[in-house]
Structures are given as structure tokens and as C-alpha cells.
Amino acid sequence: MSIAAPSNPKEITVRGIILGILITLVFTAAQVYLGLKVGLTFATSIPAAVISMALLSAFKDATIQENNIVQTIASAAGTLASVIFVLPGLLMIGWWAKVPFWPTFGACAIGGVLGVMYTMPLRRALVSQSDLPYPEGVAAAEVLKVGMASRAGAAEGKAGLWAVIWGSVASAAFAAFAAVKLMAGEVAIYFRTGAGATGIGASSSLALIGAGHLMGITVGIAMLAGLVIAWGIMVPLMTSLSPAAAGVDASAHALGIWSKEVRMMGAGVIGMAAIITLAGLAKPIFGGLKSAMDSARKAKLNGGVLDRTEQDLPIFVVGLVTLLSMVPAGWLLASFLQGGPLASLALPLVAVGIGYILIAGMFAAAVCGYMAGLIGSSNSPVSGIAILTILGAALSVGMVGRSIMGPEVAQALIAYALFVTTVVLAVAVIGNDNLQDLKTGQLVDATPWKQQVGLLIGVIAGSCVVPPVLELLNHANGFVGAPNLNSISDQPLAAPQALLISTLAKGVIGGQLRWDLLGYGALVGLLLVAINFALKKSSNGKYSLPPLGVGLAIYLPSAVITPVCIGAVAGYLFDRAMEHKVGGDTAKRLGVLVMSGFIVGESLFNVALAGLIVVSGKGEPLAIANSLSEAQAMIVALILGVAMVWGLYRWSARSGRNVAA
After folding, report:
1. Could you give the CA distance from residue 302 to residue 317 in angstroms, rounded to a whole number?
2. How far is Cα 129 from Cα 479, in angstroms, rounded to an integer?
3. Any stretches that span the bilayer, and where are they (predicted)?
4. Which of 319, 338, 557, 590 is the most buried (most CB within 10 A)?
5. Signed CA dihedral, 582, 585, 586, 590: sign only
6. Cβ neighbours of residue 102 under 8 Å, at least 6 residues apart?
7. Using an 8 Å Cβ cutoff, are 337 and 365 in contact?
């Protein structure tokens, strides 16, 4: 479906910027909570596009390009929330007791701006002249085209907004049932396997079901394989080799071995899969950079005026902004070290930090941008990038600080490595999002430089939201592994990615890292890479088993992964059922929006609950006494969850038929 664009359509508008920032506030808060609870985030482009279209339809002069700018701003900010994969590590090691606004804002903003700058020269090579599929960018463009094209499109736009609303209301209500203790927060079973133990858990979370649907069946199957490897092989084997002490039940035994040993092997799987992925991308990335430079040179030599849809920010502006960004970056790193045990080494440490941000950031942005094109930004290997980045940062700063090493110095070096990694991760995730959004823009005839400005606005907006939401959750719940001296609730958030990153930093700098477990995991990762290669080759690319998905499932708790797998299978069955049905394609798109609503509703409810915890001073302010046993509470959660998911899938199918009628 093609939409003719005027030569200079309305794109960046005041109303569009305001709407983009408002959507940003909602999605960034939702992403921060989801990432801290389960270690996963989701792409916000499609729900942002639907909300934008539904609201801007009140203006007769709204254009598809204006809606595209709104989703660009919102998606950039929602993506930036991924820095919480690292930042809570500073609380876990006791360096921060509270989340300070300015250092957190600075790390997010500087990293985000560099992410936009670094991936700009790659646009021609990896977007306009590339056959990369960009699944989420193409899907967002299709949603925009359908929503703007016809009366049926307008009807689908309204149905899409209701899909997000119904999904949000359902998941918020489901989370509220758990908060008032009318159902179990987790359905789990653990049991003995001879001298060992194992089990399986599933969090009562519609957000995770939604995340599974959005990730798709390929990643879902990979995670299911990871569950089987972790809880069907590794945990039973390793618990039998380390029998439990008297009085320790199966649950404590299995979870103890998994958290101390198995998940470190999962980190090894992720790291190896990421390294091999990066190695395979070296050629296309360098080719992309060369192509971008060649295009710029030709344009200059020919002196021709580039078409509007090919106009990026000038390359000298990109270079200038990148260099100027190093000034606040240096100031930020120097102020982080000021007055601490590393003050005497501030100059070499700041130099190492800036060099690392420049070089590692450029590499991470290019790799994540390419992976967004290949498999979508939701599935991009951000976890693997974070693991490799912290290992590199810890080794670099550890070498500088070795001359004055002591307990206080070690803690300060770990904190500094985590802070530098936060900036690099912000570069990576925005690079990831930038190329995805530029693909959407290419398909709707947007102006690249205007989108790039929109991305920068989104980065600043998101950087303002992350610190207060993170501090609210820190004060209300705290995080697993942190002192949590100021936290009110006794149910800390898992923040699994940050726990891993801080553990790796401590291990590298302190010298106690379990390299043997990481090595075993790396061997498993190599085997999985080989299996994935063989599977792709034998099926001509039809089937795959992404090793990063398997590694994540070994590393993350089964309570998180199980509902994600269920969501992936449910989404696959729903999409299959909608094939060849009247309004089937519309129903599929509405299903995606319902699932996005699941994530937004539950996350925002829990952010609001954190606010209530802080205001009331009670750890469980909504809990009411009841006589439900643990088994009964689990059954209630199961029945209610199935009913809500089934009911909203049916609503999507019916709405799809109505729109098509």
C-alpha cells in the first residue's frame, strides 16, 4: 500500500512533540518497571503509532509523517529505559543509597545522543540500500499506512486504541488481584529428583504473556529449550552433586544451586553467542560505513540536491556533536570520581572512560543497529552486549587502579566500571532503535534528519523520566542483592540483568569470578551456535534456534521465562487461527496491541503501587486478609489469567471481522 506524500509534508509539529513526550512518560515508566522485575523490555513503536493516530485523527491536517515523528520520539525514550539493566548495580554494591538525578540523566542523555550520531552514517547502507527485514520497523510502517489510508483504516485505528486500553485495564486488574492477595503472585512446583531437586515456576503476569506474544514463536521455542536445559538437565545434575543439608526443602535447594551456579553458566552462553554474532557482523558493518562515506563523497562531488527522503543531518554536524559530547561526558565521569578513593587517578580513569565510550559505543551501536534490522529491536542481543561491555570496562579500569588496590578502591572501581557501561549501553540501545525507526520512516516517505531530531527529543525526554521512576522503585521495593536500607517493602525487585552485570564487575576487579562456570556456559553456547547453524542450513533459513534466547532462559528465573514461552505459543496459535479468516490480518495487529497493553497496564499499576507504598509507608498497602490456601490462590490465578487472555483474543478476532465488514 503506497501513500503519495506531498513534497514537504507536515512532520515536526508542536502538538506532535508534546504527544510524543506524553506517550514517552507512560512507556518509559512501564519499561523501567518491566526491566527491573523480569530483565526484559519491549518495543514501543507500534502501540505509540496507534495511540498517535487515534489522537491526531481529531486534526484534519495530520499526516502520516507527523504520526511517524510521534512514534519515533516515544520509541526512543521507551528504549532508553534499558539502562536499568546496569544502573541498579550501583545500588547493589552499596555505592549509591539513592538514585541521584543528574548523574543518571547525564549517562542516559549523553549515551542516547551518541547512539543517534553513531548510527546516522549507517542509514544508507543498513536501511535504504539493504535487504535486512526490520520486522518491527516494517510492522510499524504498515500500522501507520493502514491507519491513515481509508475509513476502514480509521476504524482499525480506533479499534487499535481500544485494544491497548482493554489490554492495559485487564493486566492492571490482574496485577491488582495479586496485590490484594486474592490470588497467588506465582504458580510454582518444586520436587526431589533422587539426591537432587528441580522444579518450575510461572509468575502471575499478563505482561510476560504479552512479551512472549510480541517476541514470537522462534524466540519462544529457544527459551523453552533453555528452560529444559536449565531445569531439566543442569539443576537436577548439579543439585545431585551438591546434596542439600538437613532441613533444606527441594525449592531452596534447587533455587540455591540455580542462582549460584547455573545462571552463571547462562551468562557464559549469552556471552559466547554474542561474541560469535559480533564476529559475523564485522564485514557488513565495515561495508555499511564505507558505503555511507562513499555516498557522502559522491553527493559533495556532484553538487546535486538530495531528495528530501535522503537528507540526513550533515556529517560534519554528526562529527561535531560527537566531539562536543565528550566534554559533558568527561565532566560527568570526573564528577563521579570526585572526592572518592579514586580521585588521585581521576585523569587516567576519565581518559580510559571516554576512550571506551567512543570506541566500544561505536561498535555496540553498529552491532545492535544491524541486529535490529535482522531480528527486530525487541530481540536484539542487548544482554550479550552488556556482558561484553562490563567485562571490557572492568578489565580496563581495573588495570588503571591496580596500583592503589584495596577494599574501598575495589568498590569504587566496580562502581566506575558500571557507570561507564551504563553510558555505552545507552549508546547501544538507541542505536538499536534509531535504524528501526529510520526503516519505518523510509517506508512512509519521512525526512531522515527530522526523524533524527525527533530521536534526540525522545532521548532527552526519556532521560528525564528514568531517574525519578528508578528512585521511586528503589525507595518502595529496593533490589535483590542491595542493602535496601531505605526500602519500605520486604519484596525487592529482582533486577536480574543488573545483578549479573554487577556480579561480573565484582568478579573481574576482585579476582573471584567463576571463570570455570562461564567457560562451561561458553561451551554450551558454542554447541547451540552449531545447532542453530545446522538447523538454518538444513531448512534453508526457515527454522532457527537463537542461542541468545536459549542463554537468556538459562540465566533468567523460570518464573519469568515460563509465561513468556506460554505467550509465544498462544500468539502463534492465535495468528494461525486468524489465517484466511475475514479480517484476520486486522485481528493479528489488534492482538499485538492487546499484548502491548498487557505490558503497559501491569507495569504502570506496579509503578503506582510503588508510589502508594512510599506514601503509606506499608510494604503491602493493598493486602487484605483471606482464608485462601496457597494451592487455591494458584488455581484462582490460573483460571483468571486464562479467562482474560482467551477473552481478549476473542475480542481481537471479533473486532477484526467488524473492521473488515
Report:
1. 20
2. 45
3. 12-34, 40-59, 71-95, 101-120, 161-183, 189-209, 214-234, 269-292, 313-333, 345-370, 382-401, 413-432, 453-473, 493-510, 517-535, 555-574, 590-615, 631-649
4. 590
5. positive
6. none
7. no
Q: Which residues pair with 203 in a beta bridge?
A: 186
Q: Count the neighbouring beta carbons within 10 Å of the beta carbon of residue 411.
A: 18
Q: With beta carbons less than 8 A apart as the criterion, state whether 164 and 51 touch.
A: yes
Each residue of 195-215: pLDDT tens digit? 889 999 999 999 999 988 988
CB atoms near residue 210 (< 10 Å)? 30
Q: Confirm whether pTM is higher than 0.90.
A: no
What's the CA gap between 173 and 208, in Å, rounded? Answer: 15
Q: How many residues in total does the chain contain?
A: 661
Burial label, 569 (beta-carbon count in 10 A; 0-12, 13-18, 19+): middle
Strand (E) or helix (H) holding 200: strand 196-203
**What's the distance, CA 402 to chain centroid?**
34
Q: Say how far apart CA 572 and CA 566 lie, in whole Å.
A: 10
Longest CA–CA separation in the chain, Å: 81
Find where cell 570526573 sits. Answer: 334
- 167 to 140, 207, 595, 647: CA distances (angstroms): 19, 9, 6, 11
3-state DSSP: the chain helix, strand, coil percent, rounded to 5?
75, 5, 20
pLDDT tens track for 211-263: 889 888 988 999 999 999 999 999 999 999 888 777 788 899 999 999 889 98
Per DSSP, 127 falls in state: I
Cβ–Cβ < 8 Å for 126, 514: no
The Cα 559–Cα 530 span in angstroms is: 28
Pairing type for strands 186-193 and 196-203 reads antiparallel
Q: Tell me the C-alpha distance between 543 and 293, whole Å.
A: 36
- Please tell me the distance from the alpha carbon of residue 286 to that of residue 492, in angstroms, as a whole number: 44
d(CA 70, CA 64): 10
